[in-house]
Amino acid sequence: MSQNTAAPRVVYEGRYQRMVVRGTWEYSERTHAGGLAAIIIAVTPDDEVLFVEQFRVPLQARTIEMPAGLVGDITAGESIEASAIRELEEETGWTADHAEVLMIGPTSSGASSEKIAFVRATGLRRVGEGGGDDSEDITVHSIARDRAAAWLVEKMGQGYELDAKLWAGLWMIEHHLDGRPR
């Protein structure tokens, strides 16, 4: 039997992840419905891109990310769009009138079965302070869109870990998926 078709063996299962061995492969799976997360691309009416900063235990470092969260981790059957708006509001204090799924793809196909949906949030309005739920300590950054890439490079120089998906998100602000400018 090849390593691709061997029966999976769960070696650990926690609240949100399980570790699986299949042949010679070791990888993680999300345990919530669908194993999907959403990353939210959000630009305020003042043309500022929303970023979040938080300490990430696996990296033992502060990171800069776009708002993101698990789909269906609170309410089973919740749509990607509803999850994205909920996470945007929870993390940043901004809500959106509309959310559009741009694409879905794997986050780290050699290490995890998790997929992520890039979601564009539009019609933003401020409804609170953000900062995450009781288990999170999130700092919200609203950065002028024309300065966002330079700001990210500065943060990298200051020792922050940057989620590589940030660069794809910035590209999607300016372009349709086929490369045409927005």
TrEMBL record:
Record GO biological process: nucleoside phosphate metabolic process; ribose phosphate metabolic process
Entry-linked PROSITE patterns: NUDIX
UniProt catalytic activity: GDP-alpha-D-mannose + H2O = alpha-D-mannose 1-phosphate + GMP + 2 H(+)
Residue span(s) of domain Nudix hydrolase: 33-166
Protein name, as recorded: GDP-mannose pyrophosphatase
Keyword terms, alphabetized: Hydrolase
MF terms (GO), sorted A to Z: hydrolase activity
Homology family: Belongs to the Nudix hydrolase family. NudK subfamily.
Pfam families per the UniProt record, alphabetical: NUDIX
Entry cofactors: Mg(2+)
InterPro entries linked: NUDIX_hydrolase-like_dom_sf (IPR015797), NUDIX_hydrolase_dom (IPR000086)
The keyword Flavoprotein is assigned to this record: no
